[in-house]
Amino acid sequence: xxxxxxxxxxxxxxxxxxxxxxxxxxxxxxxxxxxxxxxxxxxxxxxxxxxxxxxxxxxxxxxxxxxxxxxxxxxxxxxxxxxxxxxxxxxxxxxxxxxxxxxxxxxxxxxxxxxxxxxxxxxxxxxxxxxxxxxxxxxxxxxxxxxxxxxxxxxxxxxxxxxxxxxxxxxxxxxxxxxxxxxxxxxxxxxxxxxxxxxxxxxxxxxxxxxxxxxxxxxxxxxxxxxxxxxxxxxxxxxxxxxxxxxxxxxxxxxxxxxxxxxxxxxxxxxxxxxxxxxxxxxxxxxxxxxxxxxxxxxxxxxxxxxxxxxxxxxxxxxxxxxxxxxxxxxxxxxxxxxxxxxxxxxxxxxxxxxxxxxxxxxxxxxxxxxxxxxxxxxxxxxxxxxxxxxxxxxxxxxxxxxxxxxxxxxxxxxxxxxxxxxxxxxxxxxxxxxxxxxxxxxxxxxxxxxxxxxxxxxxxxxxxxxxxxxxxxxxxxxxxxxxxxxxxxxxxxxx
Length: 496
Description:
Layout: H1 2-15, E1 24-26, E2 38-40, H2 41-51, H3 56-83, H4 92-114, H5 119-134, H6 139-147, H7 156-187, H8 207-232, H9 238-241, H10 257-268, E3 274-276, E4 279-281, H11 283-311, H12 327-346, H13 349-355, H14 360-399, E5 401-408, E6 414-419, H15 423-430, H16 456-469, H17 481-490
Antiparallel strand pairs: 1-2, 3-4, 5-6
Helix pairs in contact: 1-3, 2-3, 3-4, 3-8, 4-7, 4-11, 5-6, 10-11, 10-12, 12-14, 13-14, 15-17
């Protein structure tokens, strides 16, 4: 949210000097290497803004860095909500709004760095045109609708400009307050389990003056870091790329990080094509640029409902899960991170090959294999980590915390002194809270399954449910209320 405010403020400044026109002019500004070169007004005005407007380059870079931070913040926020189960009832709508925000900001970032009409951004637009043309039946119509004619045409920059500064920001201005403020006020804040937290109470400080003071300080921190990055770390130096030329491409062209995973998806895909009914389907573009993003975003949007179906959990949750307590969800999240990360790394396979002096085909095949095996290994490893952390929690409950004090017995043996957990320390492990999953099928009787478990879909649901409930850290098979009562009876509160 803080980055979005910075983007809006710097964007207003940039609109005063940028000219969204593809009319050709001869550059006569202060940047010597391009003086006398024919280019679009969009590119010439970007050079003018960078070299001849006081503070213009700083504003451009603040705007770009704020966008990078904005998208990074969205990803971190999304991962936090996923791993802690914050998407569950009653917050499914808020989760869906967050996914829509993520997609809109990605698209707006792509359109934003395409506006200067330099060689790098033109390369990205060329890829976008190829993706549109690959769509069956409607591809050529979509391409003509967006570009207004054959690529590159003269309308794409003005159209992207309107979408970038008016259409998508207007939608964001409506969705961000709804996502961050209105729904939060209606649904209350989530909180981690611990002493004093419950599913029916909310702990925190008042909005005014505490939250207002904290959020003001956080905004200043974000603005300060963004300004430092813009002042000392160059980003998107369009003057080095030159004006866009449809017949040229710069070596080592790389998009911003949030579009790198789509670039990697395109680079990894084999050159497959299918011809049917007189039409050619370029699977080498459709699968990586349409199917893969569709699977990712559809999976993210549908996951809360799929998990509710598999777990049978329809309770209201205001308490978050610790990731270790729900190994299946944590494993799925780790697999998704590796899925995204492999695609992102593959977007720089040529740079990696050049930097480490290895054949390009080696890097391509490595990422193809990693794309298939990486998520599976990530799921298994994350699952085992969760089980290990649960075992450590049980050991702490049973034996206490190591103090580092060693005692020697009369017979010469050594033992370490352990102290019991205080009530506050044990609360995240033992306090009551709604389970993350409940059994959805009655057990078999005399080898005969229950009626609701005989259909094929019901058997799939029952199998997923058994997998999900097998190793819950807090629930049907985890640290339960009995252990909490034992602790309360055996040891007094040592919080003081």
